[in-house]
Specification:
Blueprint (H helix, E strand, L loop, with lengths): L5 H4 L7 H5 L1 H19 L9 E5 L10 H10 L2 E3 L13 H16 L3 E6 L1 H12 L4 E7 L11 H11 L4 H7 L7 E6 L19 E6 L10 H11 L22 E3 L4 H4 L1
Parallel strand pairs: 1-2, 1-3, 3-4, 4-5, 5-6
Antiparallel strand pairs: 6-7
Helix pairs in contact: 3-9
């Protein structure tokens, strides 16, 4: 009997087990590289004081992204976390609480809010943007499983399903659609949690871009090249989007920068 669950019918590549084993040491390397790159990051583009919300990944919390939020604040943004404790998945009331927080930030700042989401947090960001496009300036996802269920990896999948039940196929179909504002999907070929193909935006609009970086999944919020990329994306004036185009030696740090209706096949 054919399945009526679109998640079961999709062919979703999974991260290689070896990459999963290398996640912890790779994340440590990301942190070491970040500390070494701090003098360069001081020259990152400055902000315009607009509000930025950073949403943690599955099992993460604001504590994990504290350093990133401080960096964004130093650049000149009103940056903050999601303030909802540990991310245990889209349980009852989570999305509604995030919407209330988004509205509060919009009201307090007097302008649209940029959303940055790591892994599962990136899916939340996309839901918020699709439901509240008048409140959101841009969306940036970091290693988020846009093209698969949010429970990548067997162990993580079991825990996610235990806490939240099976993924909603209707929600999954909605998440594949790019939010109607500048949208950046950051991914890594060495991601040990979410296969890089699953983190790409497919069939996006003209203000969508898929950008590859080097590093681990867990370390994407403490990755120096990601920090520079975030500074560049957030510094764009509202309504004046341009594609990210690294120049000179920086091109080596971003192996792929693909914009406009991107597909996984074209990114290889």
């Amino acid at each position: 009997m054919p399945s009526n669950n679109i998640l079961a019918e999709e062919k979703r590549p999974t991260a290689h087990p070896l990459l999963a084993l290398l996640e912890l040491p790779s994340a440590v390397i990301d942190i070491i590289a970040l500390n070494a790159a701090r003098p360069i990051l001081r020259r990152a583009p400055k902000g315009d004081k607009h509000a930025v919300m950073v949403i943690p990944g599955f099992l993460g919390s604001d504590a994990y992204n504290k350093t990133l939020c401080k960096f964004l604040a130093r650049l000149g943004y009103d940056s903050s976390g999601w303030t909802l404790g540990r991310n245990l998945g889209p349980q009852n009331g989570v999305i509604e609480a995030l919407e209330a927080r988004l509205l509060a930030q919009y009201t307090a700042s007097g302008g649209k809010v940029s959303l940055i989401g790591h892994s599962l947090g990136g899916l939340y960001a996309r839901v918020l943007a699709q439901r509240n496009p008048h409140l959101v300036r841009q969306v940036i996802s970091l290693g988020s499983p846009i093209s698969e269920s949010p429970d990548s990896g067997k162990a993580v999948a079991k825990l996610f399903t235990l806490l939240n039940g099976p993924p909603d196929p209707v929600l999954r179909a909605t998440l594949k659609i790019a939010p109607p504002m500048p949208t950046t999907a950051v991914y890594s070929h060495s991601d040990g949690i979410v296969h890089w193909r699953n983190a790409l935006q497919h069939n996006g609009h003209a203000q969508c871009q898929n950008i590859a970086v080097y590093g681990s999944h867990s370390g994407l919020t403490v990755n120096a090249t990601v920090w520079w990329l975030l500074a560049d994306r957030l510094a764009q004036a509202e309504g004046q989007w341009r594609a990210f185009e690294p120049s000179g030696s920086a091109r080596r740090l971003y192996p792929t920068c693909q914009n406009q209706a991107a597909t996984a096949e074209a990114a290889t």
